[in-house]
Amino acid sequence: MAHRVLIRSGPRVERVEAASLDEALELIEQRGRALAGGPRRAAVELRYKTFEPVQQVAHRIELRGRGVSGGVDVRGDGSVEAWTGRLRRRVVPQEPGETAYAALRRTLGA
Prior knowledge:
By secondary structure, the protein is of the alpha+beta class. Strand 5 (57-65) and strand 6 (68-75) form a beta hairpin. The chain has two helices and eight strands; from the N terminus they run E-E-H-E-E-E-E-E-E-H.
């Protein structure tokens, strides 16, 4: 069964196929760590509201496969948050000492 990983960075979308769930999750972690180490975003000020870097999704890495959907959001400040679902995204709570990637792996059962 093939799994598709979508990497969204602004308007650019890259699609990568992975042969297994473990391979897809490894790809997500590798790309997420590379993107999180990149440049930080500045706060966006609108007329009545300011969006801090932690409130901005700079990059989204999404996993789609038969029976699984989830991914990670790399925030503007470099922090990473795991989620599951497709239409309704639910944040995956991290256990003490656990990374967002490990929490996603634990939740998806890999």
